[in-house]
Design brief:
Largest sheet: 3 strands, antiparallel
Order of helices and strands: EEEHEEEHEEH
GO biological process, one term: double-strand break repair
InterPro entries: DSRM_RDM1, Rad52_Rad59_Rad22_sf, RDM1
Distance between the termini: 69 Å
Number of helices: 3
Domain DM1: 20-127
Radius of gyration: 19 Å
Organism: Columbina picui (Picui ground-dove)
Helix content: 10-25%
Shape: elongated
Protein name: RDM1 protein
Strand order of the largest sheet: 1-7-8
Length: 168
């Protein structure tokens, strides 16, 4: 007999699967794998604000604008030979875009949100099998695999290229 821990939780009878937040994923990883049993790193954290045409309308002021960041994270479990990635976007509206402090605070909050979601997405691909004797087996869940898992680090960093556009 054993116990399987997946970094998701089910809600009600709807079979809706919700991802655990990154803090809970880290807590479970530390508990079952040890503090030196896993590591994570941010591969890329890019500002993608305005890529979907928002804030492009002429005459729009900086009074209210959206801040959006894309983050790619890699989680490594060296003792088990597993490496997985997660990608996510964080977004927030800045009520007063002309206030530098409010803009910087919102930017940092969105960066942390994107990084946390990306870490959670990476952990969703890892299965922890806890045996009755306390030993832990780790498996990579390939059913959760995404296109970003097969990209090289350079391709992942170049996923979103920011190109200046001249408006005439």
């Amino acid at each position: 007999p054993g116990q399987v821990c997946v970094c998701t939780k089910q809600k009600g009878f709807q079979h809706q699967v919700l991802a655990l937040n990154s803090n809970k994923c880290q807590e479970l990883a530390n508990h079952y794998l040890g503090f030196n049993g896993w590591s994570s790193r941010i591969i890329t954290l890019q500002n993608v604000s305005g890529f979907d045409g928002e804030n492009e309308e002429l005459g729009e002021t900086l009074q209210k604008r959206s801040v959006k960041y894309l983050c790619a994270v890699e989680v490594t479990l060296p003792n088990h030979g597993i490496r997985t990635r997660g990608v996510a976007v964080g977004e927030a509206n800045v009520e007063n875009g002309e206030d530098p402090l409010e803009f910087v605070t919102a930017t940092r909050r969105v960066q942390k949100l994107a990084a946390g979601r990306a870490l959670s997405n990476a952990f969703q691909k890892i299965l922890l099998v806890v045996l009755e004797n306390g030993k832990v087996a780790v498996e990579y869940d390939s059913t959760q695999e995404e296109l970003t898992d097969s990209l090289t680090e350079e391709e992942l960093k170049g996923l979103v290229q920011v190109k200046p556009v001249d408006i005439e």
